[in-house]
Amino acid sequence: MSLVSAFVPIWILTVVGYAACRWGLLGEAGAAVLGRFVFQLAMPAALFLALSGMPLSGFAGRPLLAFAASTAAVVGFGWFGASRLFGREPGERPIWGMAAGYVNSANLGIPIATQVLGDVAFLAQVVLLQVLVVAPVILVALDRHGDPAGRVRVRRIASLPVRNPVILASLLGVACSAAGLRLPSAVDATLTLLSGAAAPAALVALGASLHHPTSSRDGRAAPAGRAAPAELAVITALKLVAQPAVAYAAGLALHLPAPQLLAVVVCAGLPTAQNTFIFGQEYGVGEAVTSRAVLLTTTLSLATLAAAAALLR
After folding, report:
1. How far does Cα 309 stand from its chain's mean position?
2. What sign does the CA torsion over 33, 38, 42, 44 have?
3. First to last CA, the chain
4. Is this prediction's pTM over 0.85?
5. Could you state one GO cellular component term attached to this entry (predicted)?
6. Cα-to-chain-centroid distance, residue 301
7. 5-311: what fold?
8. Which residue, 6, 77, 71, 128, is CA-closest to 269?
9. d(CA 69, CA 62)
10. pLDDT, tens digit, for every residue of 92-136?
């Protein structure tokens, strides 16, 4: 199967999810329930199995460094540009930078890595980088600006791994790998079955979410707010063009072989994560621009990722 044709099942399942939601086959809460199933159960199972079976020596230093360089460059530019270009307030700048450079490594990343890259090994490392490094930086900044006294709520940030099943499963997987633990066959078989549902269910849930682009994860309407077309255009360009381009340049500079370079560019080209809107909603900043950025980059990324895969064959 060619890299471009590998995207065909992704497009089909996304369209199936959209059609199922449009025709009412999933019910009013079906899309939200399916999304929670992926986030709470299937996705953590897939990441745990990938990380627990990966020796710590298998963590790719240079590819991860190339991806980290692209993330730092784009998030930093977005953070700074939100103020310089669009006059965003200090409390809005972190979420603007996150919208520009925080990739959807779970909901869309898992099915794309499975179809295009053949496994989720490198993607699992991307998840760890984002949830253990990037997300805490964003949360610290949002907490500081969200508190009237400018304080950082350390307890809330420290409890994030326990409250987030993706982070918890990733950490447990790394711990099992480090300790050399192997799961009982019945448990391993159960998690394997569950993880197999992650990719198709995530794509159907993604398609269903596109039918209601202004709805939040719990089904409430997102506030209209202000989201200038120019802002969305810049965020989309940063996310889908600049970040994979920086990743490609960094990968060339680090002399990555072709398969690793493809993995880095594809992961860097993933769209804005839905967590960006969830963070914005939680702190009451940038909800309008993040909800539309998630929709726009997700819709366009299926084409840009296929193009990147074709160019790097």
Report:
1. 18
2. negative
3. 12
4. no
5. membrane
6. 12
7. Na+/H+ antiporter like fold (1.20.1530)
8. 71
9. 10
10. 888 899 999 999 887 678 788 877 777 777 887 888 888 778 888
